[in-house]
Structure formats: structure tokens, C-alpha cells
Amino acid sequence: MYIRTKKNIGEEEKNEILKFISANKLGTIIKEEEKYFKIGLVGNTEKVDLDILLSFAGVDEIVPIGKSYKFVSREFQPEDTIIDIKGKKIGGGHFLMMAGPCAVESRESIFKIAEAVKKYGAHVLRGGAFKPRTSPYDFQGLGEEGLKYMREAADKYDLLVVTEVMDSQDIPLVEKYADIFQVGARNMQNFSLLKALGSCRKPVLLKRGLSATIREFLMAAEYIVAYGNSNVILCERGIRTFETMTRNTVDINAIPLIKEKSHLPIMIDASHGTGRRSLVQPVTMAGVVAGADGAMVEVHENPECACSDGMQSLYFDGFEKLMKNLQKLLEFRKEIL
Known about the structure:
The two termini are 32 Å apart. The longest helix has 21 residues. The chain folds into 2 domains: 62 residues, Alpha-Beta Plaits (2-Layer Sandwich), CATH 3.30.70; 254 residues, Aldolase class I (TIM Barrel). Helix content is 34%, strand content 18%. It is an alpha/beta fold.
């Protein structure tokens, strides 16, 4: 639930409300509207007599929220969240493209890829420095060395950096180099990690879990928001089904449904969603038609020699073609929506 204050509430009246909430060991999420505030209540409210708040001079009403994912829902915030990352925006009509290799393999490679994806219109350089792999014998990433290479390349070509953080103890290290934290599918319900990222100020790209329902996906986002970080970007990257001809099954209907239920921006990752280079462009475009606010695509200068995910990585000319077609599609989408 949340408290709706009276219009033109004074600072003293507002602080009186916050003091009562704090005294009852509840947290708050405060959203400023045009002439009033919404004060979301975080924590167990069952043992608190909230009716007392109705006697406060600055309180207009107490509004229950029907959804279990309270603060990422449109009940709490009807308008789209727009996240501004160093001048590059996503949400509310702003489209963001993230592109790069699955894993950072060398300084020379990441610089080549950064130059190419920037040239063709990407805004964010993606790449893994710490790679969660099914086999313990597969390439696990370059660690901090890889983060340094990404930061150097991104700075040279005016790109942002998004990279995965796998453990809460790694947050300070990754934060030194990244502009956006990525939570991978395997960690979507790593609640200690989600709580820790809630204490950070940098945006979090949250990928849907391998078999997660849409409700579970939104509840994972709720963890981050409830612990203090409202800058969450959702990412549909396919779920595991009985189908074996593709890596995963991309849930296209999740995109418009989530946009109906939540104000958070959502991206499409067709590289992991399909696992097939030939399907990346059509499925990315399908996600954009469905309303995606951004896309994540794997790109490599020589996919056949990639340390991981070469089969789903685009060549540079394939990425160029995708970006040209996406630009036309985005212009068309403006006309029909």
C-alpha cells in the first residue's frame, strides 16, 4: 500500500508522516507527483495501526495495492519509468541497444567490437568478465582484466558498459568499471544479490530466469526496488521448454504483458533466446514490434573462434543490417502506436 499526501504538503507535515513510518520499523519508497507525494510502505504492515495516519494533517488517503509486486506495478506508478544513464535513456519511447561479445576475450578483440557496434548505432557495450558456465572446464572470463579492457574500449568509443555480477561480494569491483549491473538468468532469484543491488545507485539489467513465470520475474525486480534501487531494466531472454531446435523459447507475449502490468522498461535478448545467428534479427524485430524498449545482441569479429556463444553471435555486417532495419521499424512503430 501507499500513502497519498494532500496537495501542496509542507516539509514539516511530510516529515511527521515519515517519522511515524520509521518509528514502526517500516521502509519507504517516495514518488513525487505534480502537487503531492506517494509514500510506499515497505515491510510488514500487519502489526501497525495505519489508520492513525489518517489523522495526520498531510495525509489524504491510504491506498492498497492489489499486486504482490507492489512498487514495480502500474498501480503504484501508471507512467513508464525512463532511466537516464549518462544521457542515454531507455523507457517511455527511448530505445537502447546493447551489443558486444558473450565474453571479453582480449583487449584487441573488445576494441574491434566496440568500434564496430558504435559505428552501427549501439549505445552500450556488453560483455562478460565473469562467466557462469554449465561446465566448470569452460572459459570463465578474464575477471578484472576483462573489466578494464571493456571500460577502456567503451570510453574510447563513447559507449556505456553493461556486465554481469554473479555474487554480492563482487559488486564493489564491478561497480568500478560498469555503468549497468547485469543479473543473469541463473541469478534471477539470488535474493541476497538482489538485495545488495538494491543498495546501489547504478541501474540493474535483470534477466528472466530459465523457467521463471512472469510473476516470479516481476517479484525479483520488486526485491531490487524495495531495497532502494528503482532503476531496473527487465530482459526477456527466453525460457526453457520442451523445444530443442533453439536454445530457449522466446516468450514474445511477455513483453506487452509486462508493459501492461509494470512501468519498468523491458528489453529483448534474441541471441540467448534462440541460440541461432539466423534467428537473431527476426526475433529481435518481433520483440520490438511487441513493444520492447531496447535490445541486447551478441556481436563478434570472428564468431567461429569465439570462446563462448559463437553460434548465436552476429558478424559485423549482420549487426549493421539489423540496426538499419531496426531504425526503420522504430520509425514505423511511432506511427502505429
